[in-house]
Write a structure and sequence with these properties.
single chain; mainly alpha; Sodium/glucose cotransporter
């Protein structure tokens, strides 16, 4: 069996595992609460691994090395800021969101928002923001998944290079089956397996990358520095303003990622949150080593003429794994890549389906759709198809497409949830206006391709604007009445 066949065998084996897990999880998915919230029976280890796995995903494993290859050390600010984002998230929501879930029994984040503000309109706008963010961020996962599969199949002599759309259809078919059958239960339990794979694989990949370039990391740094001094400066090619704006969005914006914060509501007991934080941070930092090492190594190899220039920056990970790693390690890491992508995509499909069949109907007509479980599975298929079309039409790099989705979530949910669930003075009107301002700025700046001075990140402007509106309007509005149970939860 040659190298390409070994790698393909690992990928096929992983896809079969997804199908098996989906069928197993289907037996445990008997209601919408199971489909969307895993019945709130997760242990803290499963939940914490699911949190860091969802953060990395295809965005970090495929898009991250591509950004390092393209713009250099400036992307390290994303890695530095994300663990700090975990600190902020667990401080603001680790206990608070679980307490609210305990007293209100929501099956989605907008459910909890409606209970906090006693406002169906706030729940509706939150659901709309989630759905829009899902289409961008899910497109990231689907695009990354298709690129990985296309790269692997191109080296199999009997198959050759397939169009990206065909690879997207193949991988999405497995993803949709897995999501439709098992819901969030299938996602979080495969997160546990693939989280372990991600950490082990990242450590092995770092060792391989260092050994690939004579002189290791020192030679990589020197080579890139000689070619482009700005790329290896502390701010990279983004500059100080661009990097600090990224830092702001990633530190504070993590608390606004619904596919991550909803997992805080799924644990069995409140006291389990304390053990989740260190596992999530350590897991992310270790797996992020793959992000750094592959990006630096591939850029060095191209500069030194040891590897042809990449047709696309997002091919950095696939090209490195196919060319410079042992075939078994390449197979394991490729399987880990698909695992990271699929589990995160499952989370997005899950919260997107909840918005379509539960949150938006409840806000508009006072009740969700009948037979929610059936409609949730139907909506999952439709959302996956739409997101795939968005990914094909966007032409964006994986990491940048993911950053757009991250910004949409952050601008809408950080004020409404991360701040609002800790501040009794927050009002429904303030939350509604903050969400609207965030969506208008995020979508408008992207549609019109606006570039801000000094590469200030568009998503940072949207988040600053939504926070400002949220605070100003809340202070100017009469104090809102709170449900006694919500007030009790906020007092603890």
């Amino acid at each position: 069996m040659d190298r390409s066949q070994i790698v393909l065998a690992f990928i096929v084996g992983y896809m079969l595992l997804c199908i098996v897990v989906g069928l197993w999880a289907m037996r445990r998915t008997r209601s919408a609460d199971d489909f969307f919230m895993a019945g709130r029976h997760l242990g803290f280890i499963v939940a914490s691994v699911a949190i860091f796995s969802s953060t990395m995903s295809g965005w970090g494993f495929v898009g991250g090395p591509g950004l390092v290859y393209t713009i250099g050390a400036g992307t390290f600010w994303m890695i530095v800021s994300t663990p700090l984002g975990y600190c902020v998230m667990f401080y603001l929501l680790g206990k608070r969101l679980r307490l609210v879930a305990e007293v209100t029994r929501p099956i989605s984040l907008p459910d909890a928002v409606v209970a906090r503000y006693n406002s169906p309109s706030t729940g509706l706008l939150t659901a709309v923001a989630i759905l829009l963010g899902v289409l961008g961020y899910l497109g990231t996962q689907i695009l990354a998944m298709a690129m990985v599969l296309q790269s692997v199949l191109a080296d199999v002599a009997t198959i050759g290079t397939l169009p990206l759309g065909v690879c997207m259809a193949i991988s999405s078919a497995v993803l949709v089956f897995y999501c439709v059958t098992g819901g969030i239960i299938a996602s979080v339990y495969t997160d546990l397996i693939q989280g372990i794979i991600m950490v082990v694989a990242a450590l092995l990949v770092v060792a391989t990358a260092v050994a690939t370039v004579d002189g290791g990391l020192g030679e990589m740094t020197a080579s890139i520095l000689a070619d482009d001094p700005e790329a290896m400066s502390p701010w990279g090619t983004r500059g100080i303003v661009g990097c600090l704006s990224w830092y702001f969005v990633f530190v504070l914006g993590l608390s606004g990622q619904p596919h991550i914060v909803t997992k805080l509501m799924m644990t069995r007991r409140l006291d389990e949150v304390k053990g989740m934080f260190p596992i999530a941070v350590i897991g992310f930092l270790l797996s992020a080593l793959l992000w750094i090492s592959i990006g630096l190594c591939m850029r060095t190899l191209v500069i030194e003429g040891l590897h042809p220039p990449l047709a696309e920056a997002d091919l950095a990970s696939p090209e490195f794994l196919k060319t410079y790693t042992h075939p078994v390690l390449a197979g394991v890491v490729f399987a880990g890549l698909l695992a990271a992508i699929m589990s995160t995509a499952d989370s997005f499909l899950n919260i997107g389906a909840a918005a379509v069949v539960h949150d938006i109907p409840r806000a508009c007509r006072g009740r969700s759709l009948g037979n929610e479980l059936l409609w949730a599975r139907t909506a999952t298929v439709i959302i996956a198809a739409v997101a795939a079309c968005v990914a094909l039409a966007s032409g964006k790099m994986v990491a940048l497409l993911g950053a757009i989705g991250w910004s949409v979530f952050a601008g809408a949910i950080v004020p409404t949830v991360a701040i609002g669930f800790n501040w009794k003075r927050a009002t429904p009107l303030a939350a509604n206006l903050a969400i609207i301002v965030s969506l208008v700025l995020n979508v408008g700046l992207q549609v019109f391709s606006v570039t801000l001075p000094h590469l200030f990140y568009n998503g940072a402007l949207a988040l600053l604007a939504s926070l400002t509106v949220f605070y100003v309007v809340s202070i100017a509005s009469p104090p809102p009445p709170l449900d006694p149970e919500i007030e009790t939860a906020m007092n603890l």
